[in-house]
Design goal:
The chain has 13 helices and no strands. The chain has helices spanning 4-27, 32-53, 65-89, 92-98, 102-113, 121-138, 148-174, 181-199, 212-241, 243-247, 252-265, 271-288, 298-303. It has one domain (4-303). Helix 1 (4-27) packs antiparallel against helix 9, helix 2 (32-53) packs across helix 9 (212-241) and helix 8 crosses helix 9 (212-241). The chain has 304 residues and is an all-alpha fold.
């Protein structure tokens, strides 16, 4: 059982990494906002059912509805839309690689808002190694960033920033409440549904049925696994390992997305990509380590 958080950490990274090929397939048939609405819907139903079966939902939780609303925006609506839109405009491998920037934002925000989250030299080196690996895979500045690619990179960065902020918010405001992960996930997804429904145009959403592969990828890959199960694991890791370590699970998806893109889509893998993958795995190990904290500037100490 003591290894369960580590196993959950790697499983979450693999699930997140596989999301990009499902989004890419669905983006050919429907709009990004429609992808997000459907994945949240199919993720919400099983999570709600599970939460009801185990009795995780309680009336006293209503007093924390404002926290659940913030998480529904940060870790669901904005995050999912940024990634769906970015993946629609970029190759799946590049989109997956750019998702590795999430821990950069998580660490910086953690240093500002979570007193017991400290930067260590290992974590700093891990961030440098991981971000270097992400840049090697994505290589966003080597070619002309005009048109769709520039917008795709921007959407991926915004989605990464949103999820990175959600790790910090969950650790600061939700983890201390002791609410079951099933309940947190249910509230978060349930509140995101009306938000997404209000902003989503439904015309043409049925086009997803034209491809059984895209349909099942959206329902099972993005919905059941990539949304419902992923958030149960997400809250568990934030609680057991901390916000920054949990966020470092996002260094795994670039490697997974790269491999899936090469095998299924036929995207080429170069020696540079393999080097980047090695850097990312090194980053995961380093960021997960905790030793002596880095000495912070006086201003940062005062802020703590």
């Amino acid at each position: 059982m003591k290894h369960l958080p580590i196993l959950a950490f790697w499983l979450l990274g693999f699930i997140w990494g596989s999301n990009f090929i499902y989004m890419k397939q669905a983006s050919v048939l429907i709009l990004p906002e429609q992808i997000v609405l459907l994945r949240v819907l199919f993720g919400f139903v099983p999570v709600l059912t599970y939460a009801l079966l185990i009795g995780a939902l309680q009336r006293r939780h209503l007093r924390y509805a404002h926290h659940f609303l913030v998480m529904s925006v940060l870790a669901t609506a904005a995050y999912y839309y940024g990634f769906a839109k970015g993946t629609a405009l970029l190759p799946s491998g590049i989109a997956g690689a750019l998702s590795g920037s999430i821990p950069i934002f998580a660490l910086l925000l953690a240093l500002l808002f979570i007193p017991n989250e400290r930067a260590t030299w290992q974590r700093v080196l891990g961030l440098v190694a991981g971000f270097s690996g992400v840049l090697l895979i994505a290589d966003p500045f080597s070619a002309d960033l005009g048109g769709g690619k520039a917008a795709g990179v921007l959407y991926m960065v915004l989605g990464s920033l949103s999820l990175g902020a959600s790790f910090i918010y969950a650790k600061k405001y939700l983890s201390p409440l002791g609410i079951a992960p099933a309940a947190l996930t249910t509230y978060q997804l349930g509140l995101a549904l009306p938000i997404l429904g209000f902003f989503t145009r439904l015309e043409g959403i049925g086009n997803i049925l034209q491809s059984p592969q895209a349909t099942w990828g959206l329902i099972i890959g993005l919905g059941l696994l990539g949304t419902g199960l992923a958030y149960l694991i997400y809250y568990y890791i934030v609680d057991k390992l901390g916000a920054v370590t949990a966020a470092s699970a996002t260094y795994i998806p670039p490697v997974v997305a790269l491999a899936i893109g090469a095998i299924i889509v036929g995207e080429p893998i170069t020696a540079k990509d393999y080097l980047a993958a090695i850097l990312i795995f090194i980053a995961v190990i380093l960021i997960s380590m905790k030793t002596r904290p880095v000495t912070l500037p006086v201003a940062a100490k005062v802020a703590d």
